[in-house]
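README, section 4: Worked example with a bound small molecule

Sections 1 through 3 covered apo chains. Here we extend the same pipeline to holo records, where the ligand is supplied as SMILES alongside the sequence. The molecule in this example is magnesium ion. Nothing else about the input changes; the structure line simply encodes the ligand pose together with the chain.
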Amino acid sequence: TRINKVVLSGFKSFQKKTVIPFFDGLTTIVGENGAGKSNLFDAISFVMGRRSSQLRADRLEQLIFNGGERHSPAEEAQVVLHLDNQESVFDRFLGNGSTAPEITLGRRITRSSSTYTFMGRACSRAQVDEILEAAKIDPDGQQLIAQGMITDIIKKNPVRRREILDEVS
Amino acid sequence: TRINKVVLSGFKSFQKKTVIPFFDGLTTIVGENGAGKSNLFDAISFVMGRRSSQLRADRLEQLIFNGGERHSPAEEAQVVLHLDNQESVFDRFLGNGSTAPEITLGRRITRSSSTYTFMGRACSRAQVDEILEAAKIDPDGQQLIAQGMITDIIKKNPVRRREILDEVS
Amino acid sequence: KRGRFLETLAAVTVQFDRIFKELFQGGTASLELETPGDISSGLLIKAHPPEKEPHVLDSLSGGEQTLVAAAFIFALQEYQHAPFFILDEIDAALDLMNVTRLSRMLRDYAKRLQVIVVSHNEETVRHADRAYGVTMKNGVSQVLALNLN
Amino acid sequence: KRGRFLETLAAVTVQFDRIFKELFQGGTASLELETPGDISSGLLIKAHPPEKEPHVLDSLSGGEQTLVAAAFIFALQEYQHAPFFILDEIDAALDLMNVTRLSRMLRDYAKRLQVIVVSHNEETVRHADRAYGVTMKNGVSQVLALNLN
Ligand SMILES: Nc1ncnc2c1ncn2[C@@H]1O[C@H](COP(=O)(O)OP(=O)(O)OP(=O)(O)O)[C@@H](O)[C@H]1O
Ligand SMILES: Nc1ncnc2c1ncn2[C@@H]1O[C@H](COP(=O)(O)OP(=O)(O)OP(=O)(O)O)[C@@H](O)[C@H]1O
Ligand SMILES: [Mg+2]
Ligand SMILES: [Mg+2]
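The generated complex, written as structure tokens:
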């Protein structure tokens, strides 16, 4: 599979609905300090199920656009991930032999609720894990490296490092 | 005061005796990855009394030049720090109303010993601390920032951060 | 399963050493169990850059540690085949030569999987197929597609 | 002494805010005790970049955290007057604009105290009075004085 598109609204510094298409090859994300690059990284981690502590927040509600100085805060944060299904890797989740060129995984939080969606319909966290696993995506895997975390594998205690290899085998 | 000179031999990747003069103003240290820039930083931290764990080593003996692939290991590591005394801030340690334009602080380790020197003569660690303090040098202070440690003050727990202010006041 | 773990370890170690040699232009690296054969013990990383004595991993420089970590991550990928890498400022500690080596390797992986990299480094951006610029105005972020020519 | 601590805190806070404003071209910052008046409680850093809502310190970006940390270190220095700064790659997370701002500030401090900075960044080196190049050959480091013109 590959990421076709990321759609965010109300997530961290992305106040309004923002659509970001992704393509094959090497894409770089650039911009000044504090612009929102790592927030975009967090959005992708968030929709794939990472916890608030891995997203530089103490609680999920801190992920909702807080208004800055000039705006009012958002009511909710939502991120939808569009994943390519042209190789049919997700077909078994689509029901009744149907297929689709792409699937969507979403996650929405308000100050008091947190929901996951698959193809726009509510689903459980466990189902999201299962869907991602079908495409060999591990939200906690070594393919998603947050800022400052590249040497984490070096600093890890050897048993935790071996557990990473357990996950892989 | 200021640092007039740093003389290292057998310390980490500095096999031979290396003399590095320092001057007023802004000095940058440049070079490729793995060249030895942070090792030079470590040498200055080492002579001012920082522990092996703060010098990227498990034990002091790992600070001795290990030979690389092509050379034999050194027997000992020594660093001598030459500090300016033209403002007489160190006079009270020089004995009998004498003075000198600069003082030297040294630290030498072998696989089985560790000694500090002041003006070439053996002294205690406590004396080194006292001498540095006279010049407002704190080996564990916020004026000496190791690679990757700049945001340590941000990540510290608030009580340890307040203790830094205790030290200052 | 003990057998499967040891098989994975062997396969990943071969890749780790190969990728390490490419990033360091020599030297050797390996992954070993603390207690050989005991799959419940920890996993050690042995990294030996060219002309240096293999040493405590901590005593490697910032840039060297980044390259060792990247070699490990890429070695896992050769085994796992995840569909993308998303890497936030992994080049921060690298000098120009090593940014170039790492970027070439990322460009190579980008032929087979999606690679998304956040970077401040012009040399990294030079290797990209496309770029998005993120800007902030009045506390709100916006994303623009940039022309790389 | 409680009085002396509170006096130090007040003095350092004034400097912290002033230096923060210069590095961020606006905004406000302060240092506060977790429990006001209780000098055994922890010390909080409140950092509020321009046009942003003051937020959890952790949610500041890598570059923003570097600048906040630098402001804190410089604020302590205004009070302590140590004879030198020795800083190893503190500019790693900064964009070009912020490297320039930080380097100008370091250059300013360099008039009053000795400043020694390890850096890979050309912009940082551009602000230096002199430079030493460290090279490694066959596992041995050497230091050369470089000509900055
Ligand atoms: N919930 C939120 N609402 C509004 N703004 C937020 C929220 N959470 C974080 N921010 C802002 O986002 C900014 C950080 O953005 P981000 O970490 O993405 O920067 P960056 O582009 O990665 O910068 P750098 O190059 O320094 O790493 C902070 O200034 C923070 O105030
Ligand atoms: N005791 C020792 N004897 C010989 N070499 C050593 C010793 N300790 C460390 N080294 C070598 O020094 C090198 C690291 O040097 P250093 O950390 O100073 O690099 P650096 O110039 O700061 O690089 P970077 O830009 O990546 O931070 C390592 O490759 C390590 O093998
Ligand atoms: Mg960032
Ligand atoms: Mg270094």
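What to look for in the output: The radius of gyration of chain C is 18 Å. Residues 2-24 of chain C form the longest helix (23 residues).

Section 5 describes how to batch many such records.
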